Every structure is written in structure tokens, then in C-alpha cells.
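On clarity, I found the account of how folds are encoded harder to follow than it need be. What matters is that the chain and its backbone geometry are given together, residue for residue. I therefore recommend that a typical entry be quoted early in the introduction. An entry of this sort, consisting of the sequence and the corresponding C-alpha cells, reads as follows:
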Amino acid sequence: MSYRNFDLKNGRNLTMLTDFYEITMGNGYFKNNVGEQIAYFDLFFRKIPDDGGYCIVSGLDQIIRYIEELKFEDEDIEYLRSKNLFDEAFLNYLKDFKFSCDVWAIPEGNPVFPNEPLVIVRGPIIQAQFIETMLLLTVNHQTLIATKASRICSAADGRNVLEFGSRRAQGYDGSIFGARAAFIGGCFATSCTIAEELFDIPTNGTMAHSWVQLFSSEYEAFKAWAEVYPDKCSLLIDTYNVLKSGLPNAIKVFNEIIVRQGLRPKSVRIDSGDITYLTKECRRILDEAGYEDVKIIISNSLDEYIIQDVLRQGAQIDIFGVGERLITAKSDPVFGGVYKLTAIEKSGEIIPKIKISENQEKIINPGFKKIYRIFDKKTNIAQADLIALYDEEIDFTQPLEIFDPVYTWKRKKFSDYYVKDLLVKIFDKGNLVYKSPSVPEIAHFSKEELTKLWPEVLRLENPHIYYIDLSQNLWKLKNDMLMSYSNQF
């Protein structure tokens, strides 16, 4: 039996996009009269994809939109009732559902690191638990793609990267929000047309091989294109043979059609073959023909490693079109964000909670927290992030000593520094109190923030590990809780 028709054109109600256990737990909380218990959840990740040095957080605006539109429709209630699992009073609660939590988040575009909360949710546990899946899938996906894009753009070493992956993305949303995240991560444009309409991201693209194949000759195909787009002429030159036919025919059309109108051609694109050899030869031939300003675009299953290699070999490339390996983050396609209970609140007192594991990296940091980024005053370079308890007072006018939370003998002292509070309040008791920047503004901000990291952190391989330390109070709280639980067994 079908209960809902998803209308992709006129929008979707995604309230029910949740793991089923969030609803069964909600019903259990409700029946045990603890549904209004105030709880704190942290969304964080444990490992940087591709063994990189940093991630670029993305997806907050979609979280905001989701939360603002939370509403159980009659079809949802009917479906849940049909399961014969849920208390009728609980279903009535869902029917009148109103989000009333507080939410803090690190704004999009910021470089972020393992084990620091990207999002903190405080509120009635039914509500805070219910939004888990959508928060995770949104932040996990977009942060993964923004991070991959940033790595690829870094490998391009100042050359433009065009996101080319719509047709290889995992579904519609993978394409649309992947394009958004890739732009935040550093791509200068996307081939995904709807992304410009939705997010004000520049779109780019010219022809496919089918255009060239349709005409009786490659020359006729290029000539027809140039006549339609004389002021933006970019030709795909590898349908038959790049050096023997593609480039000579392109130059012939440039001479006969474009230059005679007082215009200049824009570029040639190569989508196959030996990238280094072909681009070197194309650059030489174009320059000799007087087309030093014509750019060479390369595509075809590129990633940061291939880009880095061909540039080291002397490839002459101006723009990279990167598709499937960017939009799917193919080399490391899972961003392992998690959402964990860290505290509850009773009579105004915050009671920390901890999850313990024999696996060290899975032991969470308890309590309600805040994050400070420590900068060197002279260089404006970020030195470390410090996670502290929310109500902890730290005198930042005095020298500050931080220490490794595992190897506590590793310490560093700062004297000439300043700090930035990374977490920003997004919702106050369910009311939106934050205005999202535009996607171009987020992308610009992210680019600026990356300049505040040491180059060693930005390395593609064997990057310097950025310091994420706990305050003395938070470290003591965690250690005491671990010892307390240890003594019980």
C-alpha cells in the first residue's frame, strides 16, 4: 500500500527520511515519560578521508531547511499507525510535532578535524534523536565532497577545476548537492545546470563527442559550433585524432570563423589519451599558430593523484574537468560522521554521558562543549583547536598551555595568540537565529580559511596532524568517568 507520492518538481517533505529506530525509540521515550528529557547530542567524525590533513564542513543550510520544514503529514501518521507498533498518544504527539531544540554548528566552509563537534543539538530527546539521520546524511555527504574537491583543487596548483560529475553521481541529490559542496570546496564552476539555478554556482560546458560525430566531417562540426557560439568557442578535439585532425581542424576554424569576426577562441578540450604528451604538443602548436591565449581543458577520470602526477611531468593544462572521482569521492567514499549522546539535563544541571569502547578512537568526549581555534597573532596561522566544557572559563589574556589528550606529556604553550569560537548558534528553542551566507560567499570564506592553515596540514600525502586538544577540565571529566566505569567491572 502506498501512502505518499514524492513530487520532485514541487518539493518533498523529508520528515520521514529517518532510520526506523528513531521512531521506535521516540515511542519508547514517550511511553516511559522521558520524551521531554533534555538531551545533548554531538555530530562529529573520527577519520579524515584519504588520510588527509583536514576536512571542509558543508551542508548546514540544508540542515536548516530540513528542520524548518519538519512536519508529519496525515499520510505519515497513517503509515505509522499501520505498523501496529506505536501508541496512539505518541502518534497524536507526532501529528502536532513542533521542533523546539537549540542547535549550534560550525559554519560551512570551515576547515574541521576529527572528534570536534560539527553540530550540537540540545532539546527534548524525542526531537534531538529524531533528526539524527538527516543531520548525518547531509553533513556526511556534503563534507565528503567538499573535502575531496578541496584536495583536487589543491593538486591543480592554482588552475581552475570544473565539477563534471552529474551523470556519475549517486542519484539526483548526489548530483545537485555534490555540485554545491564541490563549489564550496574550491571548484570554479559545475556542469550541473540546476545547481546554478538553485545556488548561484557558475555553470560551464560545451559539446560532447556526439556533436562531432553527427556531422559529415570534424571540420564541419567545428565550423557549425563556431558559427553558433563565435564569442565562446570551445572545441572538443579528441573524437578521432587529437594531433592529426582535431587540433588542425580547430585552428582552421579559429582562423576562418572566429578571428575574422575580431574575436578570440576560448579553449580546446581533450577527453582521452596521453594527457602529458598531448597537452605539451597542443600547447606548442597553438602557440606557434598565434593562439597563446587559448586554454587547454583536460577531462577523463581525473583525481588529485593523477592531476599531481601529470603536472609534475610538465603537462600544459589550464583547466581540469573532474567528474566521477570527485562527485563520488571514489578513493574513500564514506565519511564516517556519527551522532552521540553526550549529556542530559535535570533541574538545570548538565549530567555528562560517555560511550566507552575497547577501541580508543570510539570513546567519545562527554559533556556540553565549545571549540576554540587558536591563532598565532603574528602569522594568523591556526595552531590548534581546543575543546572545552561549555561553562568553562579560560583566561585567554594569559599564556595558554595545551596537551595531547592521549599522550599528556606532549604539551605546547602559547603566549602571543588569539582565539576564535567555532560553534555558532543556529536555532534557539526551535527558532532560527542564523542567516546562511550564499554559496559563493561560503566558497570565498573557505578559500580564505585554508590560507590560515600550515602548508604541511594541506599536503595531499603524509600531512602534518593538526592538534585537537581537550581543556584540562574536559580531560579530567573524561578521565574520571572512564576510571569510574572501569572500577565497576
Remarks:
- The longest helix spans residues 132-155.
- The longest strand covers residues 337-346.
- Confidence is low (pLDDT under 50) at residues 1-9.
- Residues 206-292 form a domain with the TIM Barrel fold (CATH 3.20.20.70).
